[in-house]
Design goal:
The chain has 245 residues and is an alpha+beta fold. The chain folds into two domains: 6-103 and 158-241, no CATH class; 104-149, no CATH class. 24% of the residues lie in helices and 20% in strands. The chain contains six helices and 14 strands. The protein has helices spanning 10-23, 57-61, 77-83, 87-97, 167-177, 182-191, and strands at 6-7, 32-37, 42-43, 46-47, 51-54, 71-76, 100-102, 104-106, 108-109, 134-135, 145-149, 160-162, 222-226, 237-241. The chain has a four-stranded mixed β-sheet with strand order 1-2-6-5. The chain has a two-stranded antiparallel ribbon with strand order 3-4. A hairpin with a 2-residue loop joins strand 3 and strand 4 (46-47). Helix 1 (10-23) crosses helix 4 and helix 4 (87-97) packs antiparallel against helix 5. The termini are far apart. 20% of the residues are buried.
Length: 245
């Protein structure tokens, strides 16, 4: 029997919205749903990062008109509540949010009018070209994009995309949170990352009920600090923003 997911608690949604607003300004018009599923936190001894996807236009037909979701993130519950903790949870959400982005408009060049004169980029569209404009490319043949979001011609809304969980996504995520998980830590060790990026989090005890049982690591930007260490079992966990030199 297939396991059914369930909606994440409001505190998880609030954390996701906080990360989205802080790190992903291009997602301001995107709505993201977060859900948990009762699946193993590790698959073949590798951490289960969960899944992320975009809702299709067909899916959105059945969503309430006042709450249409753009994306969804599905996470293994045990990974959230038993394996990771503190800033690692924020980094985990950021990892999937990094995969979401709107399509951007390519930077165009090479338009020539009927008199073989270059066409100004700011010229009105719809003119007759002897040579149509084409996207600019770098020396490796990759398309260069502007900072303008491409909109759907019918709806006028951004055209949303989802990247695979590849090295580029991990690199952007690690630039913000460092080596916060075992996979990134192993990669960092392979390429000789400095040890100061591999600080291990303290054990979290008490009211949150989160007691990580892994050897995961994270960066110094936000370090979980146990207040009132003499009474650690009832301690509150405060995240202090530390500016890296």
């Amino acid at each position: 029997m297939a396991k059914k997911p369930w909606p994440a608690a409001q505190e998880v949604i609030n954390l996701m919205e906080h990360v989205k607003a802080k790190n992903h300004p291009l997602l301001i018009d995107a709505t993201v749903a977060v859900a948990f599923i009762d699946s193993k936190p590790f698959t073949k001894n590798r951490f289960n990062f969960g899944k992320a996807s975009k809702f299709s236009s067909l899916n959105q037909l059945w969503q309430p008109k006042d709450q249409k979701y753009t994306y969804q993130i599905l996470l293994p519950a045990d990974g959230w509540y038993q394996v990771l903790a503190g800033i690692q949870l924020e980094a985990w959400l950021d990892l999937h949010l990094t995969r979401f982005h709107p399509e951007m408009i390519p930077d165009m060049e090479g338009a020539v009018d009927q008199n073989d004169a270059p066409v100004d980029e700011d010229a009105p569209k719809g003119g007759k070209f002897k040579k149509k404009p084409k996207p600019k490319k770098d020396k490796f043949g990759r398309v260069i994009y502007t900072n303008d979001v491409k909109l759907d011609e019918e709806s006028g809304e951004p055209i949303w995309q989802v990247d695979s969980l590849d090295l580029h996504v991990f690199a952007k995520n690690a630039a913000r949170y460092g080596l916060w998980c075992e996979d990134l830590q192993n990669f960092g060790e392979a390429v000789g990352a400095p040890e100061e990026q591999q600080i291990k989090p303290p054990k979290l005890l008490g009211a949150s009920g989160i007691i990580p049982n892994s050897d995961y690591s994270f960066k110094v930007n936000d370090i979980a600090v146990i207040e009132n260490a003499e009474n650690a079992e009832n301690a509150e966990y405060v995240y202090h923003q530390r500016i890296k030199d």
